[in-house]
Amino acid sequence: MKIKKIGVGILCTGVGICLLANLGLSVYQMHASEFREEKIIDYVDMEIARQTEENKKENTYLEDGYVVGESYEIRSTTVISDAYLSGDEHLLNDEEKETLKIASEILEEQTKGCKNNYEKELKIYEWMFANIGQDGSNSVALPTEIANDYTPYGVLKGRQAVCVGYATTFRLFMNMLGMECHIVHNDYHSWDLVQLDDGEWYHVDVYNDVSDGCMHNCFNMSDGNAKLTSHEWDGSALPEAKGTTYTYPAQNVEELDDIYQIPKNVAKALKKKKDGLFYHFRAPVSDETINEVNMMVENMYGVIQEVSDYKTTMASSWWEDGEDGYILAIYLNRSIDMQDNNQNKVDKKKQKQIKKAIEKAFDVEIELNAYEDENEY
């Protein structure tokens, strides 16, 4: 009987241990489930907070009214572009009416015969590149003309601009053409983001190209190309720029069998005074290809300095072709004053007088920095 009692006792004890173990496992599983749920809740809360912050950035992104460099306010020109599109000027003040008049004449002249928005955009970009100089340059302008070098009125009157002036004037032209255009900015710089016929967005920085004397280098860039040219901005606040159809290289590309044809073409371009060459290669572009091109460009640059005039420099970059390939862009930069205004239209007799006066004053002999053809770049 004692043995049976012991056996029953052991059995009861075993059952008790099993029950406790099962109870412990259930408690553990319950706590683990609660822990997982807490983690999921924490993650969801964190993700909601992140998205809320991004939406807040997008909703509070300030375009008009933002002050760049603590000095230059981005001002709205919607009333002017709306007046152009509607033909109704009654809401405009005198300054806005004059801005509209000047801008309308430029648009009519420059976009005549253009077939699409890209061609119109290109014409306006090239006109601004050739006719608007950077404020702070060594040119002399009337003080009343450049008092507002950051507004389209001041830019179109005085033909000089800071980056905000280039950006707002370009945006005004695009809006007058019925095209969507934003001004992208950070604390120290501003440029444009324009939507073209393919529905895609492209970065345009006229100021940078004028500064470098390099036409089309910062024209219709993707986000990737804009970052390569040191542009920084809040990517969550504006549309992505991922278009390739209307980049300048894609619109002007030539097919080459291999990279060894490049030097011959660059030499020809120098003689013809071309400012850009754009090549797509039949073979895929590899890391090895990129290294070879870099070496070629670097050595050609040195040769160009010897065989060409001192004002010619060269730059290069790679652009996406929209088909998982790349286009090589080579820019030939002739660094002279691009402004097409009266100070550059000096006849030979006056040039000699200017040269003589400078030489006499400084007791030196110089080659005068002047040219006769107003369109000579």
Any overview of this molecule?
This protein is an alpha+beta fold. The protein has four domains: 14-60; 64-251, Roll (C8orf32 fold), CATH 3.10.620; 253-331, Translation Initiation Factor IF3 (2-Layer Sandwich); 345-377, no CATH class. The chain is 49% helix and 14% strand. It has twelve helices and twelve strands. Strands 5-6-7-8 form a four-stranded antiparallel sheet. A four-stranded mixed sheet has the order 9-10-12-11, covered by helices on one side. A two-stranded antiparallel ribbon has the order 1-2. Strand 6 (190-195) and strand 7 form a beta hairpin. Helix 4 crosses helix 7. Mean pLDDT is 82; it is low at 1-13, 17-21, 137-146, 336-344 and 371-377.
In short:
The protein is α+β, with helices and mostly antiparallel strands. It folds into four domains: 47 residues; 188 residues, Roll (C8orf32 fold); 79 residues, Translation Initiation Factor IF3, CATH 3.30.110; 33 residues, no CATH class. The strands form four sheets. It has a four-stranded antiparallel sheet with strand order 5-6-7-8. A four-stranded mixed sheet has the order 9-10-12-11, covered by helices on one side.
